[in-house]
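Box S1 | Example of a co-folding query
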Amino acid sequence: MKKILVATEKPFAAEAVEGIKKITEEAGFEFSLLEKYTDKSELLEAVKDVNGIIIRSDKITPEVLEAAKNLEIVVRAGAGYDNVNLEAATAKNVVVMNTPGQNSNAVAELALGMMVYIARGLFNGKSGSELLGKKLGILAYGNVGRLVAKIAKGFGMEVYAFDAFVPAGKIEEDGVKAVGSTAELFETCQYISLHIPANEQTKKSINKNLVSKMPKNGVIINTARKEVINEDELLEIMAERTDIKYVSDITPDNAEKFAEKFEGRYFFSPKKMGAQTDEANINAGLAAINQIVKFFKDGDTTFKVN
Ligand code: 3PG
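Box S1 (continued) | Returned holo structure for 3-phosphoglyceric acid
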């Protein structure tokens, strides 16, 4: 009997877990659960005899793959799979999948929520500003970027986007202005919402040079990954340009330095919560188990990323 483990340091909503368990058992598989674990050793122990794992931002390292002797598939219930060592998984013939689009709306709503929050001075009671008529630049026009554009248009924002892999014509079909480069996006827009994955090309790519191009009162909203920011350079430019603000759903490595120097000009969620809604948990969690069942029953590898 195939054994499936849900290993989530940050747990899914209870309804999502119940749904995953039900689908697992209806498929004739065994269900196991490891939530809120605090030490890697707990994960290493839990994976020992499993054939499939569902994770969130949990790290699947070569050590975990080594411990999981029977592992055939890992599904990251979510979009970004930078937490999975793809090379090591491939070397061990382990299929890795994500569940694209399933938690995108939750992240997009949070991006707009963060924009309102910073525009209103972190709800400090003083006069703030509105999003209506402001220029928003969306960096990477994937599932989340598209939804951010849609919601931002509801706010009456002027929406721009750049994506190296999406043709301008596709972006323009949505009534969004396509620009030719990341630099042009930063030059044009007061608000920049980041939706790029963290990979070798994008790590530390949001740097001083780009941020210094932003119009007055520039705001960067990061619901992507902390790794895409060059934090040292962001600290530098925020010291020089006292109008720039940074809001992030991921606490940066240098959080204390931002706190020391830039009161009122930053906000960081204590724990990444973009995808932390009941709806996103249910959508992504059930998609993950359905993909695992299809993989074991029919050999389906539709969402394979390695
Ligand atoms: C994703 O890549 O899907 C999001 O960053 C959500 O991550 P989480 O499942 O750890 O909340």
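The two ends are 25 Å apart (CA to CA). The chain has a mean pLDDT of 98.
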